[in-house]
Amino acid sequence: MRPVFVAGAGMIPFERQDENTLGDILAGAGLAALDDVDLGKHEVGAVYLGNMASGLFNHQVSVASALVDRLALIPAAAERIENGPASGGSAVKNGVLAVASGYYDVVLVVGGEKMRDVIGPKATDIVAAMTHPHAEYIYGLTLPAMAGMFTRLYMEKYGVTREHLAMVAIKNQENGITNPYAHIQMKITMEGILEHPQSHINSPIIADPLHLYDCCPVSDGGAAVVLVSEEIAKTLKKPMVQIAGFGQATDTHTLAEREDPTELKAVRLAAVQAFSRAGLKPKDIDVAELHDAFTILEIAESEQAGFFKMGEGAKAVERGDTRIGGKLPINPSGGLKARGHPVGATGVAQIVDLVWQLRGEAGENQVEGAKNGFSLNFGGFGNNVLAFVLRRIS
Amino acid sequence: MSNITAYKCKSCGLIMYPYHDRCLNCKKREFEEIEPSNNGKLLTFTIIEQLPWGMDERGRILGVVEFDNGVKALGLIDVEQPKLEMKLKRGWGTVREIGGVKVKGLIFEKA
Ligand SMILES: [Zn+2]
């Protein structure tokens, strides 16, 4: 296996993009990554596109073929990778394998989704289509509802409170304010979303015990990276950022069949694999981008990935350990909560944000001296998870 | 049909719902079809205020129930104030209309 490096990274702002088609979003993200690197004579050999549901959201399929056409990358190999909300992570993984194997020297990975072509409840239904058809979907189960059932048990077992959940939301939205790519750029307060007698108007229940500000927005957006071999990476001017390891693991389709429904087994296994491949430990990580589609997930993932002991994640948030400037800044980009969650884009956007951090290009959200980064992309409700460890080579 | 069908592995005894082509524990392929018992307890639940398109309703309660014989399944919880570990009995009825077709499933009431 050859080492794999991120040579170019780019993103377009995550927001409601009424003016742009899915094709515009994917091409915009792809160009942003290509413009970030001077590949010289080297050509892109393959394109991996992370996208969950273009057929359902946009009535468009074979979108990877359309993308190489728009980007004049013909005759590069191209395909769309679908793995629910972890489609982006899966696309990155396939790109890594393609370069690591030696089959391609330059690969473009794009992740993108345009979810706002349909009305909100329709988007909820499309996302809910990943639940089990007759054991879950028919009851009206949604992803927030799965998260709600998980949250109730987690709060009960580990003493996580609504204040803890609100602290995650407040921190991530604060980070989002200084991230020009973030969908939500608005400061929120404990009083406004939880303590004031009328806070329920600002943050109504979505799926009890989760409220509006516990959930990520529905966004349009795209992100992309150019992956290259070490030989090419050495010739480039920017700091070398290596994808030092990835891990991926699966779990039962239904939440009901998990022996301990508060355990995110696939998160734990994916993280262990990623760290083992990279030869690093959780304590070596300087910055992490976790999949906070729901506030509880940032806390649970920070524990299951090995950064904190079980039950300690909420306390770390309370102490400020996960803020920028804390011991382990989590989601300095604002995470899914503020950056947004165009499902297929997220796993790629996490890698882009880490690359910017490790190169020292993260602007106001920079974690000083960050050398090693970790990302976690959570598919389904934890039934298909990818973890990545990135390292700056100095 | 007025109940779900669960599966017990003939080799290792693992109880599964929904169907898997191979046992999640031992990978063998022979199962005995079993019905969940009449009663169970509520393992977790949520109250959904924003349901998917086509479901014009608020405050739907869904929860995971563990039946007395070990089967675990999601269902509609038709109880005013649900509590964890609450004893429930199973019923059966329309849980959603999909494309004009009434789809039936588990509906739990207080035992
Ligand atoms: Zn078995």
What is the helical fraction of chain B, as a range of percent? under 10%
What is the top-level CATH class of the domain at 4-119 and 218-233 in chain A? Alpha Beta
How would a crystallographer describe the biggest sheet of chain A?
9 strands, mixed
Oligomeric organization of the protein chains: heterodimer
- What ligand species are in this complex? zinc ion
List keywords for this structure.
heterodimer, A: 394 residues, alpha/beta, Peroxisomal Thiolase, Chain A, domain 1, nine-stranded mixed beta sheet, two-stranded antiparallel sheet, 15 helices, 11 strands, 37% helix, globular, B: 111 residues, mainly beta, OB fold (Dihydrolipoamide Acetyltransferase, E2P), 2 domains, five-stranded mixed β-barrel, three-stranded antiparallel beta sheet, 0% helix, 50% strand, binds zinc ion
Can you characterise this structure?
The complex is a heterodimer of chains A (394) and B (111). With 394 residues, chain A is an alpha/beta fold. Chain A has a domain at 4-119 and 218-233: Peroxisomal Thiolase, Chain A, domain 1. Helix content of chain A is 37%, strand content 20%. Chain A contains 15 helices and eleven strands. In chain A, strand 10 and strand 11 (384-393) form a beta hairpin. Chain A starts with a strand and ends with a strand. Chain B has 111 residues and is mainly beta. Chain B folds into two domains: 1-35; 37-110, OB fold (Dihydrolipoamide Acetyltransferase, E2P), CATH 2.40.50. In chain B, a hairpin with a 4-residue loop joins strand 5 (60-67) and strand 6. The mean pLDDT of chain B is 96. Chain A binds chain B through residues 119-122, 124-125, 128, 132, 134-136, 138-142, 144-145, 148-150, 152-153, 156, 204-210, 252-257, 261, and chain B through 4, 16-18, 24, 43-55, 57, 60, 62-64, 72-76, 84, 95-96, 98, 103, 105. The complex binds zinc ion. Zinc ion (ZN) binds at residues 9, 11-12, 14, 23, 25-26, 28 of chain B.
